[in-house]
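User: Predict the structure for this protein chain, please.
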Amino acid sequence: MHHVKRATIFWYQGLLLTWIFDSLFQMGRCPVGLYLDWLRLVLTWVVPVGLMTTVPAQALAGEVAPGMLWGGVAVANALLVAASALFRVGLRRYSSASS
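Assistant: Here is the predicted structure, written as C-alpha cells:
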C-alpha cells in the first residue's frame, strides 16, 4: 500500500491522501469478522487491510482456510505488480519542483 500512496502523490499533490489511507488502516485494528458482509469483503479484497491483519492472526492460531491463504498470496502478488507499475509510471511523469 505504501507504494500506491507514494505513486499517487505524483498526481494529487494538493490532496492529503495520508488521511484517507490512515483512516482505512484504522479499520484494520478490529477483526474483519465484526464488520458487515459487504464491508468485510471490501476490507479483505479491495483494500486489503483485513487481509493484512486478520489472516496472519488466523494463521498463528491455526484457523486460516487454505483458500484464504492462497487467495492472500495471489492478491499480494497482484498488488505488488500493480503498485510497482504505477510507481514507475509516476516516476516517468514526475517533474522536479525545483526545475
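The chain has five helices and no strands.
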